[in-house]
Structure formats: C-alpha cells, structure tokens
C-alpha cells in the first residue's frame, strides 16, 4: 500500500482502481516474485491508468500485454525536462528490439525506483545504471564527462572547457574512487551517495 501511494505521489495523477479482472489477468502473466509487488502498486493503480493513457485508444484494453514506445514515455511531464530521459528509458526497458519501449512491468519498475518509498540502495543502484552510459558496470572518465555535460547542458555557453572538465573529473575520482583504479564501481558510488542525504 505504501509503495502504491508513493508511486502515485511520485508520478502524479488521481487514483483509479484497475478492474479486478484486469488485475487478475495481469498478475497471471507475472513471475510469482513480482505478483506481490504488482498487487501493492495496482491496488490504487494510477500507474495503470497513466500507462494505458500512453497507448492508442484501441490498445488500452490490453495494456497489460502492450508496450509503449519510447517517444510516448518521453511525453511524461516528469521525463520531458530530465537531462537523463533517454538513459532512463534505456535502463528500465526490457525490449528485445533495443527500441527502449516499455511494458507495464517496466513502467512499474521505473515508478517504484523513483518513488519516495524506494530505499537509498535501490535509488543509488538505478542512478548508477543511468550514469553508466556505456553499460560496462563502472563509471569511467567518458561516463563522467557525459554525466557532467547532461547536468550542465550541451550549449556552448554552458559547456565546460577541457581544463575545467578535467579538473572536475579528477575531483570526482579523488572523492569517489576508493580503490584508485581510475573508475567508480557500484559500491564506491553507493558509499559516496550514503554520505549525501539529499541524494
């Protein structure tokens, strides 16, 4: 119940209950370990309502088995101005086609990770994956440069000089790279985040 309320608060919208038969159908197609979480979130299912509204009208009846294209996911107000919007879609999408479309399960995972009730470990795990632009399991200099560029903007007036970028990356690594291998792994990232209560 708390997770459902947090997901609703995180993504906005009013509560609208998923019809019982649709809930049963959806739960039936989930692995057993996911059914409990789905029940919690779907109980007040503004998530279901928001997901189905991203689909064309003729596909809304079968929202549990549909995939929403990335272009539609990016219309969500919470993602529209997010500098990591494309990475968020990439990280949460389970599409075999690599098109970053989302199933309802993907959408729930995204809502859960960004909800106020998500644990710091979950939040930092997904943040790390989002910042790992080359998906190699570490944040290296190239990942950090892309991260800084996303945060500062891509325009000429906001772009850091090469010297400023190099100094900033050096500072980040000095603060975060505990084993001094020139990259930041997940545990190092989580250690730094644990000292930042505002994360």
UniProtKB/TrEMBL annotation:
Cited Pfam families: EF-hand_7
Domain EF-hand: 119-154, 164-199
Keyword tags: Calcium, Magnesium, Metal-binding, Repeat
Keyword Membrane recorded: no
Transmembrane segments: none
Repeat keyword on record: yes
GO terms, molecular function: calcium ion binding; magnesium ion binding
SMART domains the record matches: EFh (SM00054)
Gene3D superfamilies in alphabetical order: EF-hand (1.10.238.10)
Signal sequence coordinates: none
Stored InterPro entries: CIBP (IPR051433), EF-hand-dom_pair (IPR011992), EF_Hand_1_Ca_BS (IPR018247), EF_hand_dom (IPR002048)
UniProt protein name: CIB1 protein
Organism: Himantopus himantopus
Name of the encoding gene: Cib1
């Amino acid at each position: 119940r708390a997770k459902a309320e947090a997901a609703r608060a995180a993504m906005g919208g009013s509560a609208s209950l998923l019809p019982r038969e649709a809930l049963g159908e959806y739960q039936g197609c989930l692995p057993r370990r996911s059914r409990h979480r789905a029940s919690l979130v779907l109980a007040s299912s503004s998530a279901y309502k928001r997901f189905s509204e991203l689909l064309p009208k003729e596909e809304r009846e079968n929202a549990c088995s549909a995939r929403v294209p990335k272009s539609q996911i990016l219309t969500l107000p919470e993602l529209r101005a997010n500098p990591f919007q494309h990475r968020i879609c990439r990280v949460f999408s389970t599409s075999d086609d690599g098109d970053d479309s989302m199933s309802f399960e993907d959408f729930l995972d995204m809502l859960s990770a960004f909800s106020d009730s998500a644990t710091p470990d979950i939040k930092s795990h997904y943040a790390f994956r989002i910042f790992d632009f080359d998906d190699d399991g570490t944040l290296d200099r190239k990942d950090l440069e892309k991260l800084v560029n996303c945060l500062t903007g891509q325009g000429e007036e906001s772009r850091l000089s090469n010297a400023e970028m190099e100094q900033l990356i050096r500072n980040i690594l000095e603060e975060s790279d505990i084993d001094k291998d020139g990259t930041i792994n997940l545990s190092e990232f989580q250690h730094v985040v644990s000292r930042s209560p505002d994360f």
